[in-house]
Amino acid sequence: MKGYLIFPGILSLLIVVALFYPNAIFIYLLLLLFLFRLGHTKCLKVISLTIFCGLVVLLVGYFKIYHVSTLLNGTETQLQVQVAPDGIKVNGNLLRLQGSYQTDKGKETLILFYTLANEEEQKAWQKQSDPLQLEVIGTLECPEGNRNRYQFNYQQYLKHQGIQWVMSIDQIKKQQVNQPNWWAFDVRLTKLRIQAIQTLEQKFNQRSFSYIVALVIGNGDFIEPEYKEIQQQLGIVPLFVISGLHIHFLCQFIEYFLLRIGVTKEKSQCLLLVGLLIYGQFVGFGVSVMRVVLIHFFTFLAALLKQRFASLDYFFLALIVSLLYQPQFILNIGFQLSYGVTAIFLLFGYLVQPLSSIKKNLFLSFLASLFSAPILAFHFFEIPLYSMLFNCLLLPFFEWVLIPLCFFLCLVGLCFSATSLVLTLVVQLSNGIFLFLDDLLMFFGKLPYLTFVTGRLSIFTISIYFCGFFGLLIYLYQPKKFYRSISSILVCCLFILVGSIQIKNYFMAGEVMMIDVGQGDAILIRLPNHQGDYLIDTGGQISYEKAAWQIRSNEQSLAKKTLIPYLKSEGITRLETVFITHAHLDHFGALEELSEEIQIDEVVFPKGSDKSSTFSTVLNKLDEKGLQLTPVLAETTYQKQSFSAEILFPFKVETGGNNDSLVLQTTFGTLSWLFVGDLEKEGEAELLKKYPQLKIDVLKIGHHGSKTSSSAAFIEQLQPTYGLISCGKKNRFDHPHKITLDQLLSSQVMIYRTDLQGAIYMKYMPNEHEPFQKILTND
Q: Where in the cell is it found (predicted)?
């Protein structure tokens, strides 16, 4: 049965995918094709083993994914929870705990958040490495789903881990250390890992420390967000954090050392078996660590038992064990890239055997880039164009220089004191290497056209792509005419992928989307058949000064976290026009960062808004980039290609305040829309005086539903059918105000709110429109 574990492995993979995407019909077609190929083996042992493994994975996966129950009802305010050392995460002034609540009926995992009061409290939690028992008072909430289309779904992410609740802690009443039992080696190894990380952090600067922890312990959390983004754009993420190269290096080094000191091969393999399990628990058994540990474990175990299997057998056995242990691993990009790229190397590595070392690296990098492209596009909505080149250049450097160096530095850091001359010399010498690597990444990161924006790819499109990808490799592998005919058909799927992206962009309905940007406005307008994309306001955040200890390492601006990813998920790389209604940060704050990632042809704003110093600074920077800046006043028609809008306000040059907001009237489908920015009652009165016959169907409610806007006279005159309110969930301004809501309801206006319903959108064609839709359904 050598080499036949590929069949149970692939069936297990397809079953888990089908469990997570039960409506993806194409997956079931692939299952049928696979079963047909399985029957073609005509080997009863292989068929029996494959079906048995498939049934086990189906039962275990179904139970772990769909049979998630809770012991809580959501009304509890005081809980006793147990927290393991690796469940404690401190990020600035935010403490995140993953703990377990236990009763006679069982145990349930939940996530807890607590805002630290001062720096002393932060340092105390950072030093914590013991399991704890806490008594906490707070509020339980269901985790929230994605508030914008294609956004990260935190609720689903936690649900797949069996977590149903998050708690906001108001007070930690009691805290005591739980001493682990003598046999609790996992807890002791976890404590040892945390203490090792704390020691290394004290002895190395941030740059060296982040590389050491990433490449020795496999934890990339300490890498600065700026460098993570560059690695993603260059396409070297799979090599840097999830490759598992450090474990290969460690195994080779230990085995060489043991053999050199006279330990027999059999004993060294026994020691490595035990050592791998200890090391896996020590570093936390992440996705890539588990893969490499399991593959090496099964390899050494087979050698001890004097059994011989193909490399693919060890790989697929590790895959099956991982899926049984945590089926939700399959949703993790680390799992997808780690197992996927490794499988490609094992399946088709023989093709490069006759090639030189340079050609071999180029070809393998090419295969890895082709395989990872749709996965990266699915998660990040873009693919790196230079990944093959950078992987080829950096892989030897990582394997032969950086990984051995990091192991050496880790050993020195743990063995020598911070004042040791040896440590001081080693740190100074190594800093140059890390600095060189960072400078190199920064240089590459400034190259033009690093990525190609694809938008969010469907599961069907990705499946088609992989059919074409493997068809191409089969064509290279199988000289027989039959296989080449099949592979030729599959290669056509690659062209279908490219075609589907183009069809998605050029043959589509128009759409108006009120993006959920929290307490601000951002409205995306997509004209039918890719005739243009326009944005009214960008949203933005008002930043408040914080002490250094309060700043969170992974904090992102609204543009980086929400607006730009959403636009890229829609495949948008260019905006014809951005309208800024007025010079307040919650309406233009993301404009500058947006212009760095998305091409903007023109920015339209009310005359006089540039009197605001903050807005003027942004405009000057945009002007330096060559953007067209167009100040406007009322009683003009804005016309650009197929987009047309009447500018109704302001009538005169002002300073960019709420009552100077740009007011636009236009039509989408059969509905007349009015966008009023933050116009308040005084401005509304001026507008009605000028346009006493104005009637509309859809009103973007002014000033986020504040009581200073949407007067009774204004609503009665316009007679809108729909009212859209953009405001932040539980915002400190109490928007929308009850007075405004009552006024809208009394006028029989159908209200849609981003704070309750997430993003709101409507699809339309020139003479028709669909009903409004919302992202969140639990309003």
A: Cell membrane
